[in-house]
């Protein structure tokens, strides 16, 4: 109504024209104001950018974020006000319009100036505009300009902002500028980059963008930018497209708009000048895969990726190979049709950096099921991997290729598909690898030997180089190191959280020495005995394979070598294989392996002295190795003896040394004793640097243990007095010494011996209590009190002194006192513990708390335990976690298996507010409950674990294994709920957890470095290959723990779950390869195996007679990973003696320890039946032929162009074809601007193999300037192609020449784009196992 009234009201009379002088004055005022506004706008823009950057940095800081958001709103408001004023001046400039426009252009202002420039250029490009048919057309144009002119404002609604951005981006750069108008083109480019950057920010921070603006319109607009001439605009547009992808529907929209053509075009550009564009295109393709848009990806895109992956010098090769590996897993057919598998196989042989494991895993996945491996030719592609093993000639880079092949074989043997591949065709691949050891080429033999050390997981000792070089006769094995990695995975006692690694790192950060953890491994080994060692079980079958492939005979032949290194390394490997066979193989197989008749024959051959000497040396080394390992055998393999009674126990050895020294010290006479005192130089001088500290240590450990000698040293001499004076803090002698390893060994260790010697004698205890040492230590600790300390003097225990000097050694001395009752009384006398309680409350001195925790002795019940409890519950999160972690070390070092006080402290930690502390407490309680008494005590306390969720499951499963715990959990309703959850979905989760655990354990070989191939792109904290607690052992299973009690067995029988599992296995069809059924079957198999691993659960398997069905699946299934799962499950059945006997009836041998305890290992008597792969028929996956639109013009020139482009895929014809194309382009330039012909060429590129330089040449020979009209024509051509492909007639008919055609001179008689009708030459393919 107001608008209507304004049009009816008479217009006011125009103002009189201003005087010239007034006009000039007004012009200068306007220009000054405009200049000031533009300067302010530039300042506000920079401020806004800075605030946005600060927001990204302080995104999680709520206080700063709030202040920064307020500043950002202020900047936006100021900029809005300035821009509105500038627009007002520009639109009302009148006669000053030229000056105003020039000023705006100088400041790169992109408001209405951009629109007016674009509008004017568009008008000039189209010629003279028609006369307006309506008088208000100009008014509408002006209104639209005013609506668009405002810059993107953060205060606008998202829909309005997107509309404004898309309107600006729709400018057609091919039409908006002409040659010579570079300033306009630069302005358009800068404007588009600005808008694209804003759009990218919106897409990153907005979900469900479709609700604000149609995605199809955005894709169409971005496609126009991708087709433009500016490289930077294309890169930004591809980034925006990637962030626009949120699901398969978005990928379909992009493919409908032929984005694939522009992706292929970008990937084919020159890598030197267009690397960012190629990179963004590749990222866009990967986003298609990530958001389940694989079904819309065509051959053209994959072939473009294949072309890049073929270039060995391309920076993007690794990511392209990884993409092809991912595509092979998701769609092997598409990958084979596009030539991707061929490139992957070649990259494996080339040994592309850090890509071996990734590519092998993809290959293993393809080999697993018959549906996927039918695309691979048996005995062709796969055996090219081991081809370097069978090459006798050196050739180019032979050693490097052999190393790459060895790495591939090692990785293959970590998967079941790879194991079965090595055994195919009468173990042809395995025998080929073993025969390489017989080649008389030392370099080859060294590489293959190193590979076998890795395959058998042998960890070489530190001094093995001296042995191999011939400088010593054998390697030395100590109690702390074994030559062979016994493939014992990390048990609960050596978990990442509970191990000393983190503790030692934290101690090092504070300058402390590492904690020497003498873990009590008996309990851990006992618990691990209940779980399946999957690493040992996997290694067992690999060992049998290579023994069957005659590796021992090949190694014996190598022993005869003149090369000492080769001979001794072969000897070392023979010894390790014999040890593994003793431990992992059934007794009858082990006897056959141990005989080594050929080596004994060589040792008794007197015709060749050198060979006899080598053979004798090998036998002697094997014998010494066996004896040494028997001496330091791990507790799990020895008979049930106490740790202190074993030969070689370090504590016992040290005790015997002390006894000998004490006897010697008791026996010396007075003259000898006085001479020792004089030799120490303590009586001659007070300068400790002149003292003989070795003599002092010898005196303290020997003669001074005699009470009479000690009395003489204390009273008659000044020996003890001067020593204690040296250790007084305020004498600044010991406390000021630099904390180096040598000084710690000399001064601190001697101080500890001194305190021990005094505490061992009543007179010494009395003397120590009267000395000023403890008084000064207490005074030094009191200095840390903020109320009592002197701020002007540095305390003895300041942070710097604790890090750099031996001041921290006083806590070690106090720790020695805490080991003895008399020492504890002395500490109480001087109120040391009261001072410790005060120190534990200091907020900024975690170093003191760590020093107290790690040095106190907790054997005696008293203040140290109370102090530890206080720190565990009152400190900051890190110190509480550290204290809980250290409690695990105390538990393992404790000689008592029953530690009630530790259980009580850990129970308190279950209710900590920090989740990591709770998880640590659960892990340590789980370890402690390996002792039945501790478990009973824990159940007696009835802890509430509901608040822990999944973290508390290990403890709850522990409870199930006892009758008391079962009744407790049953009363809480946990058993019924958990049983239903496991039946519904937790069984499936268990399989995933177990397979990831096994993958981590297999990936972490003894020689593996802690490095990920993709460290630059993967957070190391989330790296799944980092070894975790329990990896390599089967995790506790609910049904397995349930069947450990009679109550649990009754409940299982009542629920009928086992009957369901048995029927599921029995009714499984070997022809059913559905992934869902396959995964469910594995879950059921592990549940049945866990039940059969217990004595109470095995009768369930016997009643249903289900073991024979598992054996049948293991021997007959075509899914290789399923065969491996059955193999592991049978190992669980072999955990009991009854299970071993049951498997023996089915021709599977179990493995038992020397004392008859089943090891949970079993192997088939008929290896061929288990390791065989049924022949499969190779299905050739030929490339899809090109599909051309029906409306394409089929003149002779078009056909000639297509023919020559087709010839470019042949490297023989490519040179001539490129010359023909250049000639045709020179004569018929218009053909190389046609959209339909360009579309046909893209179809050819997607159907046939073209190298990257050829792709670049073909695409650059077309001068395609995709204006809006050409993009619409491209859509029409593609739509015609889609419509025509649904008809019955072949789509190639319009361009296929006839034999009588008048174009015979130009076009060959054969079809230009022929269908591939290849038939496999071999009628019978596959492995001939029989």
Description:
This protein is mainly α. The longest helix has 38 residues, at 20-57.
Mean pLDDT, all residues: 77
Gross morphology is: globular
Number of helices: 67
Largest sheet: 2 strands, antiparallel
Structural class: mainly alpha
Instruction: Output the strand order for the largest sheet.
Output: 1-2
What is the β-strand count? Answer: 2
Q: State which percent range the strand residues make up.
A: under 5%
Low-pLDDT stretches: 1-20, 112-152, 477-503, 508-527, 632-648, 1009-1023, 1285-1330
- How far the N terminus sits from the C terminus, by CA atoms, comes to 96 Å
Summarize the model shown.
With 1330 residues, this protein is mainly alpha-helical. It is built from 67 helices and two strands. Strands 1-2 form a two-stranded antiparallel ribbon.
Helices, strands, pairings?
Elements (H helix, E strand, L loop, with lengths): L1 H7 L11 H38 L4 H30 L5 H10 L5 H15 L10 H13 L8 H12 L3 H4 L5 H24 L9 H12 L4 H14 L3 H9 L2 H9 L7 H16 L8 H11 L7 H14 L1 H6 L2 H11 L5 H13 L1 H4 L24 H15 L3 H20 L6 H14 L8 H5 L31 H10 L11 H9 L4 H15 L2 H9 L4 H21 L2 H9 L1 H7 L5 H23 L18 H18 L2 H10 L13 H9 L5 H10 L2 H8 L14 H19 L2 H9 L1 H11 L16 H6 L4 H9 L3 H9 L2 H8 L6 H10 L7 H12 L2 H17 L6 H10 L5 H14 L3 H10 L11 H8 L2 H10 L1 H30 L34 H5 L3 H10 L1 H10 L8 H18 L5 H7 L2 H10 L3 H14 L3 H9 L2 E5 L5 E7 L2 H5 L24 H12 L6 H14 L7 H13 L4 H9 L7 H17 L46
Antiparallel strand pairs: 1-2
């Amino acid at each position: 109504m107001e608008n209507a009234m304004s049009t009816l009201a008479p217009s006011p009379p125009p103002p009189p024209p201003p005087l010239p002088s007034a006009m000039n004055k007004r012009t200068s005022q306007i220009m000054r104001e405009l200049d000031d506004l533009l300067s302010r706008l530039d300042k506000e823009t920079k401020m806004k950018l800075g605030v946005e950057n600060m927001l990204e940095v302080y995104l999680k800081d709520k206080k700063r974020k709030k202040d920064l958001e307020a500043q950002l709103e202020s900047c936006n408001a100021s900029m809005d006000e300035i821009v509105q004023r500038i627009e007002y001046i520009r639109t009302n400039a009148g006669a000053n319009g030229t000056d105003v426009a020039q000023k705006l252009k100088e400041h790169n202002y992109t408001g209405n100036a951009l629109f007016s420039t674009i509008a004017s250029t568009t008008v000039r490009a189209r010629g003279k505009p028609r006369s307006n048919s309506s008088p208000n057309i100009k008014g509408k144009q002006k209104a639209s300009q005013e609506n668009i002119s405002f810059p993107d404002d953060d205060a606008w609604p998202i829909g309005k902002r997107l509309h404004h951005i898309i309107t600006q981006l729709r400018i057609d750069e091919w039409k908006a500028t002409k040659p010579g108008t570079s300033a306009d083109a630069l302005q358009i480019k800068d404007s588009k980059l600005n808008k694209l950057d804003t759009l990218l920010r919106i897409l990153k921070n907005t979900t469900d963008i479709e609700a604000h603006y149609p995605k199809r319109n955005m894709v169409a607009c971005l496609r126009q930018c991708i087709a433009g001439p500016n490289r930077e605009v294309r890169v930004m547009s591809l980034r925006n497209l990637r962030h626009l992808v949120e699901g398969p529907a978005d990928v379909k929209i992009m493919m409908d708009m032929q984005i694939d053509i522009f992706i292929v075009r970008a990937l084919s550009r020159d890598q030197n000048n267009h690397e960012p564009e190629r990179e963004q295109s590749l990222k866009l393709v990967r986003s298609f895969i990530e958001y389940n848009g694989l079904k819309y990806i065509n051959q053209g895109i994959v072939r473009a990726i294949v072309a890049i992956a073929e270039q060995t010098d391309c920076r993007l090769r690794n990511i392209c190979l990884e993409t092809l590996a991912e595509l092979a897993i998701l769609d092997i057919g598409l990958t084979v049709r596009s030539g991707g598998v061929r490139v992957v196989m070649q990259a494996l042989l080339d040994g592309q950096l850090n890509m071996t494991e990734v590519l092998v895993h993809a290959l293993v996945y393809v080999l697993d099921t018959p549906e996927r491996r039918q695309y691979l030719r048996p005995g062709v592609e796969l055996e090219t991997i081991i081809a370097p093993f069978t090459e006798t000639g050196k050739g180019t880079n032979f050693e490097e290729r052999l190393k790459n092949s060895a790495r591939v074989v090692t990785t293959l043997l970590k998967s079941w598909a790879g194991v079965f591949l090595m055994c195919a065709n009468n173990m042809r691949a395995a025998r080929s690898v073993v025969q390489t050891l017989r080649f008389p080429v030392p370099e080859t033999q060294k590489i293959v030997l190193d590979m076998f050390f890795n395959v058998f997981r042998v960890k070489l000792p530190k001094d093995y180089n001296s042995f191999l070089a011939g400088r010593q006769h054998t390697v030395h094995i100590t109690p702390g190191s074994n030559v062979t990695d016994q493939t014992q995975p990390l048990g609960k006692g050596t978990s990442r959280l509970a191990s000393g690694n983190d503790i030692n790192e934290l101690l090092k950060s504070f300058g402390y020495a590492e904690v020497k953890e003498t873990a009590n491994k008996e309990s851990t080994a006992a618990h691990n005995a209940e779980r399946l060692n999957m690493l040992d079980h996997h290694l067992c079958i690999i060992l049998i394979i290579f023994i069957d492939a005659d590796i021992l005979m090949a190694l014996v032949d190598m022993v005869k070598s003149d090369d000492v290194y080769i001979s001794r390394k072969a000897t070392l490997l023979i010894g390790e294989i014999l040890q593994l066979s003793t431990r992992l193989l059934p007794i009858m197989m082990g006897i056959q392996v141990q005989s080594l008749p050929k080596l004994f024959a060589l040792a008794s051959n007197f015709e060749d002295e050198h060979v006899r000497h080598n053979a004798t040396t090998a036998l002697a080394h094997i014998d010494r190795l066996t004896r040494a390992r028997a001496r330091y055998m791990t507790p799990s393999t020895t008979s049930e003896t106490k740790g202190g009674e074993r030969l070689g126990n370090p504590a016992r050895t040290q005790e015997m040394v002390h006894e000998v020294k004490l006897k010697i010290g008791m026996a010396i006479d007075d003259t000898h004793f006085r001479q020792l005192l004089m030799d120490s130089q303590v009586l001659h001088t007070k300068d400790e640097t002149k003292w003989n500290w070795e003599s002092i240590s010898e005196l303290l450990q020997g003669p001074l243990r005699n009470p009479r000698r000690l009395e003489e040293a204390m009273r008659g001499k000044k020996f003890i007095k001067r020593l204690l004076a040296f250790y007084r803090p305020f004498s600044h002698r010991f406390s000021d010494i630099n904390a180096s390893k040598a000084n710690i060994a000399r001064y601190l260790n001697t101080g500890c011996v001194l305190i021990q010697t005094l505490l061992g004698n009543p007179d010494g205890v009395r003397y120590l209590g009267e000395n000023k040492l403890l008084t000064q230590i207490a005074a030094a600790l009191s200095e840390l009190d903020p109320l009592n300390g002197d701020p002007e003097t540095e305390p003895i225990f300041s942070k710097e002194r604790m890090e750099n000097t031996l001041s921290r050694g006083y806590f070690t001395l106090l720790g020695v006192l805490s080991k003895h009752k008399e020492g504890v009384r002395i500490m109480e006398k001087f109120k040391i513990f009261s001072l410790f309680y005060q120190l534990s409350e200091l907020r900024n001195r975690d170093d003191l708390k760590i020093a107290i925790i790690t040095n106190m002795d907790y054997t005696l019940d008293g203040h140290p335990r109370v102090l530890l409890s206080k720190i565990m519950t009152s400190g900051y999160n890190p110190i509480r976690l550290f204290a809980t972690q250290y409690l695990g070390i105390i538990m393992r070092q404790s000689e008592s298996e029953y530690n009630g006080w530790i259980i009580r402290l850990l129970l308190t930690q279950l209710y900590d507010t920090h989740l990591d502390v709770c998880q640590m407490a659960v892990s340590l309680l789980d370890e402690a409950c390996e002792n039945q008494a501790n478990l009973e005590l824990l159940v007696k306390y009835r802890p509430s674990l509901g608040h822990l969720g999944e973290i508390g499951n290990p403890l709850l499963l522990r409870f199930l294994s006892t009758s008391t715990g079962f009744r407790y959990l049953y009363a809480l309703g946990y058993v019924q709920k958990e049983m239903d959850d496991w039946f519904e979905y937790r069984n499936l989760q268990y399989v995933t957890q177990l397979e990831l655990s096994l993958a981590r354990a297999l990936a972490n070989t003894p020689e593996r470095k802690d490095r990920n191939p993709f460290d630059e792109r993967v957070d190391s904290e989330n790296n799944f290959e980092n070894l975790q607690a329990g990896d390599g052992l089967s995790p506790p299973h609910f049904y397995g723990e349930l069947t450990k009690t009679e109550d649990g067995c009754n409940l299982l029988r009542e629920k009928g779950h086992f009957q369901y599992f048995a029927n599921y296995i029995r009714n499984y069809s070997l022809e059913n390869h559905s992934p869902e059924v396959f995964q469910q079957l594995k879950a059921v198999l592990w549940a049945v195996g866990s039940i059969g691993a217990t004595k109470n659960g095995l009768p369930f398997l016997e009643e249903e007679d289900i073991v024979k069905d598992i054996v049948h699946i293991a021997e007959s299934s075509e899914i290789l990973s399923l065969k491996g799962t059955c193999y592991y499950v049978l190992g669980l059945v072999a955990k009991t003696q009854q299970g071993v006997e049951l498997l023996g009836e089915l021709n599977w041998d179990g493995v038992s320890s020397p004392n008859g305890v089943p090891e949970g290992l079993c192997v088939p008597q008929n290896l061929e039946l288990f390791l065989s792969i049924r022949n499969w028929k190779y299905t050739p996956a030929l490339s899809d032929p090109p599909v051309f639109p029906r409306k394409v013009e089929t003149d002779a020139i078009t056909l000639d162009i297509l023919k020559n482009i087709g010839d470019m895929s042949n490297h023989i014809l490519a040179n001539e074809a490129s010359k023909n194309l250049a000639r045709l382009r020179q004569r018929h330039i218009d053909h190389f601007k046609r959209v339909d012909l360009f579309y046909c060429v893209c179809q050819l590129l997607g159907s046939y193999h073209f190298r990257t330089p050829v792709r670049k040449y073909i695409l650059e020979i077309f001068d395609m300037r995709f204006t809006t009209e050409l993009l619409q024509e491209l859509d029409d051509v593609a739509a015609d192609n889609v419509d025509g492909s649904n008809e019955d007639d072949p789509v190639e008919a319009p361009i296929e020449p006839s034999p009588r055609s008048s174009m015979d001179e130009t076009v060959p008689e054969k079809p230009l784009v022929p269908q591939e009708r290849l038939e496999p030459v071999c009628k019978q393919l596959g492995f001939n196992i029989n």
